[in-house]
Amino acid sequence: MSYTAFLILILIIAIALILIVMVQNPKGGGLSSSFGGGGAQSLGGVQNTNNFLDRTTWTLAIAMFALILLSNIAIPRAGSNDVNLNNTLDGIEATTPAENTVPATNDTIN
Questions:
Q1: CB 71, CB 1: distance < 8 Å
Q2: Which end of the chain is more exposed for a tag (fewer CB within 10 A), N or C?
Q3: What pLDDT score was predicted for residue 79?
Q4: Taking the model in full, what pTM does it have?
Q5: Residue 31 domain flag
Q6: Is 81 domain-assigned?
C-alpha cells in the first residue's frame, strides 16, 4: 500500500473513533460523580449497546495504532528509488597515505 492510502485509512479510523467515543454514555466516576451527578447517568442504559461500543472503540484504536506503525514502512524517503549501492563510490578519487618524512630518532640534525 502507498503512504497516501495509509493516511486516508488512518483519517477514516480517527473520525470513526471520535464519533464512537462521542456516542458512548459516560461510565460515571471522575468529577461528575463527585458533585452528585453520578446517579442520573446510569438510568436507561442498554448493556449490549455499551459492550458493542466498547469493543468497537478498542478495535478501532488498535487498528489505528497498527496502521500508524505500518505507515512508517511506506513513508517515501528522499532519493530512495534511485540509490544503487554498487555505484556509490564511482567518481571518487582513491588516495594513498603520504610517506613518513619525519627523521628517525637516531639521526642528529646539525
A1: no
A2: C
A3: 64
A4: 0.53
A5: no
A6: no
Cβ contact 38:28 at 8 Å: yes
Q: Would 102 be classed as within a structural domain? A: no
Q: C-alpha grid cell for residue 75?
A: 513513508
Q: Which three cell numbers stand for residue 44?
A: 436507561
Residues 71 and 7: beta-carbon distance below 8 Å:
yes
d(CA 58, CA 46) in angstroms, rounded, equals: 19
In-domain check, residue 98: no
Residues of the chain with pLDDT under 50: 40-41, 43-44
Contact yes or no for 109/103 (Cβ under 8 A): yes
Is the sign of the CA dihedral 53, 54, 60, 64 positive or negative?
positive
Q: What is the residue-wise DSSP string for the chain?
A: --HHHHHHHHHHHHHHHHHHHHHSPP-S-HHHHHTT-SSGGGTT--HHHHHHHHHHHHHHHHHHHHHHHHHHHHPPPTT-SS--GGGTTTTPPP--PPPP-SPPTT----
For 18, the domain range is 1-25+49-76
